[in-house]
């Protein structure tokens, strides 16, 4: 859990005298300070504590961590009764709408790339072009590979550059339909 600086400051401002009494601990007055019966070398005064046998002291959060074995967040919560902000959940962006790139009037560059550079059979390439499962996009003349669901609706598209090694899935594509 994450705590704000204000919450941490409130926890460290807690009177240790009051806190120990609410925990059922016995304090013995010793001048202007109180000794904790459980550890007679430990004195508290307001929101500060000091353990004389170890020359160690501090504020309420340190005290709760040291003597009650609590973690930092647990100590702050124990002292203030407030919960931290917790882990902020990652907010997922709303899904992007899927739109296929515009078709080019011809598929010359796509055919050249797939047949000459990739070594595919021209008849096979033309069959995929006719079915619409591959085509050349109008903007950059990349090859677009289309994945469809069982009803034939395009659900996925991957773009492959014909002149450079560019590769990209179209925004909103569902990879379960490659």
Key descriptive features of the protein:
178 residues, alpha+beta, DNA Primase, Chain A, five-stranded antiparallel sheet, four-stranded antiparallel sheet, 6 helices, DNA binding
Give an account of the 3D structure.
This protein has 178 residues and is an alpha+beta fold. It has two domains: 5-80, Alpha-Beta Complex (DNA Primase, Chain A); 108-169. Helices cover 30% and strands 23% of the residues. The protein has six helices and nine strands; from the N terminus they run H-H-E-E-E-E-E-H-H-H-H-E-E-E-E. It has a five-stranded antiparallel sheet with strand order 1-2-3-4-5, covered by helices on one side. Strand 4 and strand 5 (56-58) form a beta hairpin. The longest helix has 10 residues, at 108-117. It starts with a helix and ends in a 9-residue tail after the last strand.
**Counted beta strands:** 9
Give the CA-CA distance, first to last residue: 41 Å
Give the overall form.
Answer: rod-shaped
Written as H for each helix and E for each strand, in order along the chain, the element string is: HHEEEEEHHHHEEEE
Q: Total number of helical segments?
A: 6
Radius of gyration: 35 Å
CATH class membership of the largest domain: Alpha Beta
**What is the H level of CATH, i.e. the homologous superfamily of the largest domain?**
Zinc finger, CHC2-typedomain
Q: Helix fraction? A: 25-40%
Oligomeric state of shown chains: single chain
Q: What is the CATH architecture descriptor of the largest domain?
A: Alpha-Beta Complex
Low-confidence stretches: none
According to CATH, the fold-level topology of the largest domain is DNA Primase, Chain A
């Amino acid at each position: 859990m994450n705590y704000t600086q204000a919450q941490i400051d409130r926890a460290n401002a807690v009177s240790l005298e009051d806190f120990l009494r609410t925990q059922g601990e016995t304090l013995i007055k010793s001048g202007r300070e109180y000794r904790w019966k459980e550890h007679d070398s430990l004195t508290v005064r307001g929101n500060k504590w000091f353990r004389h046998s170890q020359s160690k002291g501090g504020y309420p959060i340190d005290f709760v961590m040291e003597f009650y074995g609590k973690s930092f967040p647990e100590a702050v919560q124990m002292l203030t009764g407030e919960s931290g902000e917790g882990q902020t959940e990652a907010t997922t962006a709303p899904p992007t709408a899927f739109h296929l790139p515009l078709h080019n009037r011809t598929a010359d560059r796509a055919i050249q790339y797939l047949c000459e550079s990739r070594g595919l059979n021209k008849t096979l390439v033309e069959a995929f072009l006719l079915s619409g499962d591959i085509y050349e996009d109008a903007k950059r003349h990349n090859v677009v590979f289309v994945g469809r669901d069982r009803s034939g609706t395009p659900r996925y598209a991957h773009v492959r550059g014909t002149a450079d090694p560019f590769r990209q899935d179209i925004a909103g594509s569902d990879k379960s339909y490659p």
